[in-house]
Write a structure and sequence with these properties.
- This protein is of the alpha/beta class.
- It has helices at residues 2-33, 36-50, 69-86, 88-97, 135-151, 187-194, 203-216; strands at 102-104, 115-117, 122-129, 156-163, 172-177, 180-186, 196-197, 200-201.
- The protein has one domain.
- α5 (135-151) links the parallel β3 (122-129) and β4.
- The N and C termini lie far apart (66 Å).
């Protein structure tokens, strides 16, 4: 009788543990699947972005350069890779602007900025790299952000940088310009800001999905 009780107890806990695992798996699958309505359309947009007509590589011989076929091929591959990298600002704008609760402002919006969430609590100008702006274009960018901030004091106005300077440890900072506060947010912190819903951060999943797709184009 005692042996039977032990077996029943063991069976109960084993089934409970299995049920717990099943529920966790189901919860994980639901969590992974709910944003598919975002992923499928965005993949089509990204494909269109990367399949646009590309500039052909034109080799320019130099007096001291290596003009061997193997080196020319290496230079061609590097050129094509740079072209892909140059599209990362537009890629990020597409990803952010089409995310749940966000709009891609496109070209010609009166603010001159790129993406805004639908409740107007955040607006941003998205740049590919830390050095995309020279002094003149940075002033123009700050003017746009500060003007929007003055008209919308409760809105966070952000200079968004996709690829920060290597070694940069300060991914977010506040800047006072023309008497108002604007923000500079970079890299991982930028994507966490956008792709978090509640206390769940989906940025890694979204970035990995996009990276896998780009490598297949």
């Amino acid at each position: 009788m005692e042996s039977s009780t032990k077996e029943d107890t063991y069976s109960y806990y084993k089934e409970t543990a299995n049920l717990s695992k099943i529920l966790k798996i189901q919860s994980y699958v639901r969590m992974m699947q709910w944003y598919l309505p975002y992923v499928n359309p965005i993949i089509n947009k990204i494909t269109s972005l990367y399949q646009r007509e590309k500039k052909p590589y034109i080799h320019e011989p130099t007096l001291f350069g290596d003009d061997s076929e193997s080196n020319i091929e290496t230079l061609k591959i590097a050129f094509e890779q740079r072209q892909k990298q140059m599209k990362e600002g537009e890629l990020a704008q597409t990803m952010i602007g089409n995310w749940i609760g966000w709009n891609d402002l496109g070209i010609g919006h009166q603010s001159g900025l790129d993406c805004r969430n639908k409740d107007n609590t955040i607006i941003m100008d998205v740049k590919n790299k830390h050095n995309t702006c020279n002094s003149g274009s940075q002033k123009a960018l700050f003017d746009k952000l500060s003007n929007y901030k003055k008209e919308n004091p409760k809105t966070r106005c952000i200079w968004a940088i996709v690829n920060p300077k290597p070694g940069c440890k300060k991914m977010s900072e506040k800047i006072i310009y023309n008497g108002v506060e604007i923000e500079k947010i970079q890299g991982v912190e930028l994507f966490k800001l956008v792709f978090s819903i509640g206390n769940i951060d989906y940025s890694k999943q979204i970035i990995n999905i996009v990276k896998r797709h780009i490598h297949c184009i």
